[in-house]
Amino acid sequence: MPVWQQVYEEINDPDFVILCAAEDTGGEAVAGPIFDAANPTYIQIVDENHVISSAFNFVNVPSAAWINEEGRIVRVDEGTYAKTHTMGDGEQSITFGTDVYAPAVKDWVAKGADSAYVQSGSAVTGNIRKHSFDQLKADAAFRLANLFRAHGQKDKAEQYWDLAQSLNPDSINFIRQNLTLSEEGSAGETFMKVIGEYASQGKDYYRPLDIEQA
Asked: Where in the sequence is the domain holding 164, given as residue range(s)?
C-alpha cells in the first residue's frame, strides 16, 4: 500500500480513484490496523466474504480491474504490484511483482482510451476467468463458513471451509485466508511451499501480465 500511495500522489488527478479492498474474514479488527499503518488517502474497504474476488474470479491478491469513467472494465485480473518484491532468503527466496504495472496505470490516467494498455472488450472478456459450477459452490461454502465462525460455531465453520477448498483447490485466496488463522500467517513456509508447487506444475497463480518491460 505505501507504494500505491506514492503512485496515487504522483498521479494527483481528482478523476483517478483507487479503491483498495482488503479481503479478510477478520474484518476491521484485522485489516484496520494495516490500513492505519499505511495511512493511505485513497478509499479502503474490508471485504470479509471475498465478494470482489468471487465476482471477478480472482485467485490471488493483489489483483485489480481498471474501470473507466463510463463504468466499463478496460483491463482485468493481473498481479497488481507497484514494484518488484523479493521474499525469503537464499535458495528459498522468491521474486514477484513487476516494475511495469504502475507506469501503465499512469499512462492510462494520462491518455484514457488512447492508452496502449487499454484492452478491447473482447480481450477483457477473454481475460475474465469463467466460473465452474464447483467454484460457485465453493464461494457459497466459504461464505457459510464465515457466517458459522462469526456465530461461534467452529466445527460447522471448519466443515464448510474445508468444503470450499476441496471444491476450488486452486484458489490462493482460500489458502492464504486459512493460513491467516495459523501461527505462521499467510506468507510463511506453507505459503512458500504452495507457490513452489504451483511453479513446478507450470500453473500461474496470476494470469500472465501482457505489459512488456520498457
From this structure: 133-200
The amino acid present at 87, given as its one-letter code, is M
Question: Tens digit of pLDDT for each residue in 34-64?
Answer: 888 888 999 999 999 999 989 888 888 888 8
Distance CA 191, CA 129 (A): 23
pTM for the full model?
A: 0.82
CA atoms of 209 and 103, how far apart (whole Å): 14
Q: Mind listing the pLDDT tens digit for each residue in 1-32?
A: 678 899 999 999 999 999 999 888 888 888 88
Pair (122, 145) in one structural domain: no
Pair (6, 33) in one structural domain: yes
57 found inside a domain:
yes
Are 114 and 74 in contact by the 8 Å Cβ rule? The answer is: no
Q: Is 115 among the domain residues?
A: yes
d(CA 47, CA 3): 21
Percent of the chain with pLDDT over 90: 46
Q: How far apart are CA 31 and CA 44, in angstroms?
A: 10
For 170, counting Cβ atoms within 10 Å of its Cβ (0-12 exposed, 13-18 middle, 19+ buried), the class is: middle
Domain contains 213 = no
